[in-house]
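Q: what does this look like with adenosine monophosphate bound?
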Amino acid sequence: MDSFSETDLEDKILDAIKSMGFEKPTPIQAKAIPHLLASDRDMIASAQTGTGKTAAFGLPSIQLTNIEDKSTQTLVLCPTRELCLQITKDITNYSKNIKGLSTVAVYGGASIEPQMKALKRGAQIVVATPGRAKDLIRRKKLLLGNVVRVVLDEADEMLSMGFKEDLDAILSETQKKKQTLLFSATMSKEILTITKKYMQDPIEISAARVNQGADNVKHFYYMVQAKDRYELLKRIADINPNIYGIVFCRTRRETKEIANKLMQDSYNADALHGDLSQAQRDEVMGRFRKRQLQILVATDVAARGLDVNDLTHIINFNLPDDSEIYIHRSGRTGRAGKSGISIAIVHTRETRKIKEIEKKSGIVFSKASVPSGKDICTKQLYALIDKIEKVKVDEIQIEPFLPTIYEKLDWLSREELIKHFVSAEFNRFLSYYKYSRDINVSENQKGESGKRGEKRRREDKGKASHSRLFINVGSKNNLNPARLIGLINEGLDSGDADIGKIDIMKTFSFFEIEDASEAQLIKALKGQTFEGVSLVIEPSKEKPASGSFSKGKSSKRRDHSKKKEGRWGDKNRRHENRGRRNRKS
Ligand code: AMP
């Protein structure tokens, strides 16, 4: 399809998207828009950010809205506040020529009153995060009786952030006869369970991952010991003086740590993670978009709202557990016909993961050799010489200074002068790499997989320190570990905080959370309600047990949910938890 006018979209919508610079539908739009305008059959779309999926479901939803009716007709559920605001902004822009259509965002971690007022004024399209939607339904402020369309956006992320039960509760409030649209970057078993439960005879479409296996993205992996990851990262940045890329880390803690180190080492880098306020995130993303920053260190969730087309490199500081996430990450480079490089930093125990990605995706990795100090100095030196050769000389501006400069440098020969200029710029690299080691590790080398590595991993893990918090809801309020994790993730607007031991009692509960997130979480949840109870959350007087903690993601959640009440701290559980983490790391 070459043009939006080939669809049945009305002129008001066509004008709006034209004024936004959309010329032709993206592949997913070309498939979804005609279907949604003509049929109320459910739809599963395998699509990631950057494919134009918001307009794919947004434009038909706008057109199909009955403007005369002020009740909510389309409900969009999405995992994070940021995405919620982004979708609302996009839909508002697409519908700017349609009088009487109102789109409202409701999300956790913000005051509920203004959101209730906005709903009261009437919102035919509501974009919501699951926990807040549930809260508003309970308060009878979000009424879903007339909803004819439910969109589950980034369904995979909603599940991994612990919103499964909230989704169940919300969907049970909607009428049976409605259209359900599910968008997900990955199609896991859990997603398929949802589709089976809530969808009838769905058509399946996929946005061809433009970059998957495409010639314009080259995939490399470097093999080093875990302790040399950062050194390798610096070498990658140094051998690519014009790098413009994202470094993906697994946790916020790691994201901060790596970004701080890079900044201290004079790289043009910054961090993007869930601990930043919305304004801080916007500021970092803004600088990155404008290329004032060359390297952005980010978690997957935080980088979701970021849409940049001309990245040169994607670096996986750690390989993700799910190979689809690797594909998703690497798809951020090599866009719009440009070439890109996706790099995985791995250690010897991870060759299996590389093979798994290759098998699942058809991607072929090449093993790259870590650049030596000499390689880097050569590259940097020639880049510098190139710059000197091509620099634009502003004769008029520098003219007045030249006589003194000539006089001062008069004693140097041409050769000596060149040496001095180059050294002034270049000594940092020369001295840094003077005694550089070879940090390559071969597949057969033991690396750190033996006892020494195990010890290091234990030490690394011990570094995370946790706070134990009290919360005034328990099993009597239908709280269980999965819902608690969902509540925490929604408050933090992220799914990557380290959550530790969870003890659900009858009328109250305790849980451990990484220190770094404690204050933010207390602030976000204080005064919020859960199942009608105004939340009280405060540090517990008891000390947290050391050792057992896990990241707030799905695999742990399944285990949590098996155990209705009681402690996680018994020997077997702790052992099981540690085993899982080790497999992940
Ligand atoms: P999304 O995948 O919905 O997050 O969209 C990614 C980006 O593509 C957003 O910045 C949209 O504004 C933009 N976009 C969506 N559809 C089109 C289109 N047909 N032409 C050009 N840009 C688009």
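Residues 464-584 form a domain with the Alpha-Beta Plaits fold (CATH 3.30.70.330). The two ends are 45 Å apart (CA to CA).
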